[in-house]
């Protein structure tokens, strides 16, 4: 097998595993937002197409390497969504809080990445 073929196959497998992990996390997060299965199915379908195109774009542009804390922020948002999902049967948590909480964690990670990049490029 040639080096170019191995590299292409490796990139393809990486994208597939990344896409599958985002899809699984999307299902968990969807149940944290609503229990309406129709809304979840539509949201996951749209989300899968969006995540797929975003993943390809981020890998091609090297954005995940440029914004070093972005991936961590996404994982923290997933953890927050799963905690909300488990707590929600005991305490009512509005959907707005759930959605804004995840977006806030990702926003903070993006902001932290930008600050880190500015600090390290000046030094």
Structure description:
By secondary structure, the protein is mainly α. It has one domain. The protein has 5 helices and no strands. The protein starts with a helix and ends with a helix. The mean pLDDT is 78.
Tags for this entry?
transmembrane helix, Integral membrane protein TerC family protein, mainly alpha, 0% strand, membrane, transmembrane, 86% helix, DUF475
Strand and helix map with partners:
Blueprint (H helix, E strand, L loop, with lengths): L2 H31 L3 H25 L1 H4 L3 H18 L7 H28 L1
Helix pairs in contact: 1-2, 1-4, 4-5
Pfam families: DUF475
Organism: Variovorax paradoxus
Protein name: Integral membrane protein TerC family protein
Order of helices and strands: HHHHH
Mean pLDDT: 78
Write down the Rg: 17 Å
Largest sheet: none
Which structural category do the helix and sheet elements fall into?
mainly alpha
Count of separate structural domains: 1
Overall geometry: flat
* Beta strand count: 0
Question: What is the beta-strand fraction?
Answer: under 5%
**Helix run count:** 5
The span between the termini is 43 Å
Q: Which spans have pLDDT < 50 for at least 5 consecutive residues?
A: none
Helix content: over 70%
Keywords: Membrane, Transmembrane, Transmembrane helix
Pfam family, one: DUF475
Transmembrane segments: 27-51, 72-90, 96-114
Organism: Variovorax paradoxus
């Amino acid at each position: 097998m040639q080096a170019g073929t191995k590299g292409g196959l490796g990139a393809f497998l990486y994208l597939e595993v990344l896409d599958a992990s985002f899809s699984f996390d999307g299902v968990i997060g969807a149940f944290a937002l609503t229990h309406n299965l129709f809304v979840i199915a539509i949201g996951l379908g749209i989300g899968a197409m969006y995540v797929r195109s975003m993943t390809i774009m981020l890998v091609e542009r090297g954005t995940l390497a440029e914004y070093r804390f972005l991936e961590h922020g996404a994982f923290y948002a997933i953890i927050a969504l799963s905690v909300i999902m488990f707590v929600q049967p005991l305490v009512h948590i509005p959907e707005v809080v759930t959605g804004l909480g995840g977006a806030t964690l990702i926003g903070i990670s993006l902001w932290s990445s930008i600050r880190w990049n500015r600090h390290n490029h000046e030094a």
